[in-house]
Amino acid sequence: MSNIVILTGAGISAESGLDTFRAEDGLWAQHRVEDVATPEGFARDPGLVVNFYNARRQQASEVEPNAAHKALAQLEAEHEGSVVVITQNVDDLHERGGSRKVMHMHGALKSALCAACEHRWPAPMVMAPGDACPSCGSPQARPDIVWFGEMPYEMDLIFELLGEADIFAAIGTSGNVYPAAGFVAEARRAGAHTIEFNLERSSVGNMFEEHRTGPASQTVAAWVDEVLSRG
Ligand code: OAD
Ligand code: ZN
């Protein structure tokens, strides 16, 4: 019974029609990171930031999970050992694809967060700057997204899972953002077999023992079939 830990990034949702961040025409070519993905940017211009995530939320609601999301859900349902998806993505395509154990280490578009009291609630499709927190009433609602300079969620539990992993797979992530880019090293220390799924080798590609190159909808689905047929 092997424990499988999977890290996903924007590449797994690309074939569903969502932009990745670092492609030539990706989100970080269209928007300045400092403006839309930092606490300082939010303090300067909350409207710009809220609208950026409103647009992401709207787009995510208009697309469907693809074969890679669905294959991971099948893996979780049919593999005898544990299967956990740690995602850097803020869309809900893993959940809509059927996965149940999903950790959103960079937050989620579906969630709103009160900057005053840390209360969380389901975000409306369109948030407005200065929305009131339903718990404390403070007009400090923000998208529940982990911005640069903030600590990703559930890191203690994630490192525990990595320490017990037998297989670590990274899917559609460029390896530019830490701590996620360091998970492969941690999993290797724990003795896990490490596999990278990407269109090309990522910036931490040399850390992986195995590479599967190509669109995730194909490579991940084929891998899941293999793992399940091995039993
Ligand atoms: P990136 O945009 O940096 O990388 C996406 C990766 O997916 C690239 O390595 C692509 O080669 C690969 N890719 C694209 N299409 C693919 C496909 N069909 N099949 C397989 N691979 C494909 O996105 P992330 O690595 O997720 O953080 O970015 C990490 C974090 O940086 C994000 O969570 C976000 C961003 O700034 C925050 O906003 C906090
Ligand atoms: Zn509050």
UniProtKB/TrEMBL annotation:
Domain of life of the native organism: Bacteria
Catalytic activity from the UniProt record: N(6)-succinyl-L-lysyl-[protein] + NAD(+) + H2O = 2''-O-succinyl-ADP-D-ribose + nicotinamide + L-lysyl-[protein]; N(6)-acetyl-L-lysyl-[protein] + NAD(+) + H2O = 2''-O-acetyl-ADP-D-ribose + nicotinamide + L-lysyl-[protein]
Cofactor(s) of this protein: Zn(2+)
EC number: 2.3.1.286
Cell location: Cytoplasm
Claim: Metal-binding is one of the keywords in the record: yes
Cofactor info, note text: Binds 1 zinc ion per subunit.
Residues that coordinate or bind Zn(2+): 114, 117, 133, 136
Catalytic residues as annotated in Swiss-Prot or TrEMBL: 106
Binding site for NAD(+): 9-28, 88-91, 172-174, 198-200, 216
Keyword annotations from UniProtKB, A to Z: Acyltransferase, Cytoplasm, Metal-binding, NAD, Transferase, Zinc
GO MF annotation: an example: NAD-dependent protein lysine deacetylase activity
UniProt binding sites for substrate: 53, 56
Pfam families: SIR2 (PF02146)
Segments forming domain Deacetylase sirtuin-type: 1-230
Enzyme kind, highest EC tier: transferase
Major subcellular location class: cytoplasm
Keyword Cytoplasm included in the entry's annotation: yes
UniProt remark on domains: 2 residues (Tyr-53 and Arg-56) present in a large hydrophobic pocket are probably involved in substrate specificity. They are important for desuccinylation activity, but dispensable for deacetylation activity.
Family in the record: Belongs to the sirtuin family. Class III subfamily.
Biological role: NAD-dependent lysine deacetylase and desuccinylase that specifically removes acetyl and succinyl groups on target proteins. Modulates the activities of several proteins which are inactive in their acylated form.
Protein name (Swiss-Prot/TrEMBL): NAD-dependent protein deacylase
Organism (species): Sulfitobacter aestuarii
Lineage: Bacteria, Pseudomonadati, Pseudomonadota, Alphaproteobacteria, Rhodobacterales
Gene (name only): cobB
